[in-house]
What we know:
single chain; 9-stranded mixed sheet; 10 helices; Dihydrodipicolinate Reductase, domain 2; binds nicotinamide-adenine-dinucleotide; 2 domains; Rossmann fold; 30% helix; globular; alpha/beta
Amino acid sequence: MGKEVASALGRWFALEDMPIQAELVAVADLNPAALQWFDRIPTVTQKTADYHALLANRDVDVVYVAVPHDLHEKVYMDTLAAGKDLFAEKPFGIDLKAAVNIALSARTSGRFVRCSSEFPFYPGVQRVIQAVQQRDLGKIIEVRAGFWHASDLDPQKPINWKRQKAKCGEAGVMNDLGMHVLHVPLRMGWKPVRIHAQLQNIIAERPDAAGVMVPCDTDDNAILNCDALIDGREVPMRLETKRIAPGETNTWFIEVYGTNSSIKFSTKEPKTLWVFRRDKEQMWQRIDLGHQTAFKVVTGPIFEFGFPDSFLQMWAAYLSERGGILGDRLGCVTTDEAVVSHRIFEAALESARNKTVVEI
Ligand SMILES: NC(=O)c1ccc[n+]([C@@H]2O[C@H](COP(=O)([O-])OP(=O)(O)OC[C@H]3O[C@@H](n4cnc5c(N)ncnc54)[C@H](O)[C@@H]3O)[C@@H](O)[C@H]2O)c1
């Protein structure tokens, strides 16, 4: 993910009306090949295997940290202790305890801390958010949101750290994909109050690098059936995170159904927004979207939007909020939202363990 961020910062000049400048000056990684990749970036003046050396660099104001989940707490805390602002990766600590510790340190340090989640910066998602905020939908009937891919469909795919509880966390796929799914619902104020979770560890063994079968102990798929409090009423909200979703490469979606109108967007059709308005006939309208972004870029409004664009927009949001110029645009995941996401994952684990409905 460090490379993805380097790519976004590398075309910072594509942002129009952006008074804040950003450039990549330092990189830390234990892996020499990963470090070497950054040779292509002329602004990088420091490459080190020791992240403490990066944290001691006076030219560094903001640190983006993308490491395995078991290292989040330590590296995030060290970053804050070094007096740097932090752009954290999800899930913001391996579990609830770690997330709370990081959030408390963020507060006491006074540093600016947000967590990564890029999909809400797609123009289609911005339109969904706008429709909800403008109260176009009437009474909300139901919410469905999810993130699906099929990266783990092949049982022979070698194991990596994301498939091991010790490094990915007990919450497995929820730690991996859950923050992506929760960012918009939490920002809209739709907090689950009750949850019934269906968690599946579908492929329980995978080959290691030597081809020996080893335990793959994280859950692959999670379906969270929630009651969410929306405008004082309990509304069904289904949140799905799946690493084994046949037919999907990287499908993030949100669907909000209301009594006046409904709206849905999926990255499966990245330039399509579906809108339904109550009328005599049951008719969904398909709106063709372009590059209508929250942060203006050189790319013309008729051109398609994609994943790297969402990263550029997310970074524009992070640095704008840090610089006090975000205005009414969507900001990145807050430390409180990150903590709430872990509370939800913990409740889901309890629900699946005891086969019960859990109050949050
Ligand atoms: N926002 C997104 O869309 C998105 C996508 C994938 C992953 N992620 C998140 O990014 C983080 C990293 O995931 P990834 O897929 O990039 O993992 P990865 O395994 O591809 O990369 C992790 C990197 O961290 C380095 N590293 C490990 N320990 C280190 C240390 N002590 N000091 C310096 N470098 C160290 C490794 O050498 C490796 O290059 C995770 O938190 C993950 O959840 C976010």
